[in-house]
Structures are given as C-alpha cells and as structure tokens.
Predict the structure.
Amino acid sequence: MSQVEGDYPSVIELNVGGVCYTTSLATLRNVPDSQLAAIFTGRQQISLDAKGRYFLDRDGVLFRYVLDYLRDGDVVLPDCFRERERLKKEAEKYCLPGLVEAILSESRSKPPGVITVGYRGSFQFGKDGMTDAKFRKLSRILVSGRVSLCREVFGESLNESRDPDHGISERYTSRFFLKHFFLEQAFDMLYDQGFKMVGSCASGTAGVGDLKPGTDVEENRWNHYNEFVFVRE
C-alpha cells in the first residue's frame, strides 16, 4: 500500500500486525523522541493497509502495553505475564526507554521468597517392560510456600481445594497443587517470575506391596517422589 506523511486526523486507526487499535493522535505523539511520534509528526513514513488504516509491522498483541504506557506514563502487567523480554524488545524498537525501565523496575519490585515444587510419579511401561518405557506419569504436582507468593506465580493454574483461604495474611501452606500435570510448565512459570532453582532431592521405591486391582506391578515398582526448591532474591 502507499505510504503517507503530513497531516493526520485527531483519532487514529491502527493495524499493528493484524490487530486493530483506535487511539488519539496526541497519545501517539506523547513521547516526542519515540518512533511513533516521528511517524505521526511526518518525520517518518508509514504504510496504509487495504482499509486505509495506518499499518505497523510489529507485535499486535503486545502493542496494548505500549499504548498503556503512552497514555499513563507507566505499565501494569498481568500476573504470570510471560513475555517481558519480548515486550522490552518492542519498547526498544519504538524508542521508549521509559517503558524499558518500567518493565525492568516491575520485575525488580517483586518480593523475595521461596517456593517448593514436588511431584509423585512413575514411568509407564509397555509390553516389553523396562525396555519399553513410554512416558513419565505424574499423579500430582504439589506446591508449598507463602500463599500470596504461590498465587502470584501460578495464578489460575493453582488448585486450592485442599487448603481453603482462612483469611490469615502472609500464611504458609504445603497443601496446594496444580491443575495441570506438566512439570516443565510449572518451571517456566517460576522462571518467568524471577525464580531460580537452588536445590532438589529425590527418592524412589524398589519394592511392591499390596496393589489395587488392575495396577501394573512393574510400573508401581518405579514410583518416585521429587522436590525442587526455587528462590527469588
């Protein structure tokens, strides 16, 4: 599509990577040294899409936070936000150092703490027994730590049914577990919130007692329990 420069309407319709936004010209010019201000003062050219909207070939979903910053001078990211690094790159592309610093400050402002993640599991075996181990089976991923911290990290994926809220601030629990069975997803969520693993331990069983009907003997022999300790300083 053709490129435009010069006069702009007071209300701007944008197509950012396929996601459409409507905002004011004043908002886009709010940071004079930014790329967006350069575009919408005519110093840089911009393309139009097929419907006549101004087109930016950037991440359309993350652009909402760019607009928030231009409007308010700050940004509030949702709990368990997992794209800080990508958003920081978008801020750098738009020449918004204030947004870059806001993203970094938001990460630094999180309180320190410790969360322990544990799981019980076994290995699913095929017809050939140990030579045909198919996948790891997790019966449950357990979470221990300060309640407010666990909620911050795991959000809606945290199952609190075994430990209902008692209305006590800053209490601790060892009775939370996750609604999913993906250990790596739990690790990703902790990493995204600034936690680092500092220790782990594991135990296993080598014997078989009385089993429930239908329980696989060989699989039960390889039951194990593991714990991982994560710290945010």
In short: The chain has a mean pLDDT of 85. Helices lie at 25-28, 35-39, 63-72, 84-93, 97-108, 147-154, 183-192, 217-221. The first strand starts at residue 3 and ends at 4.
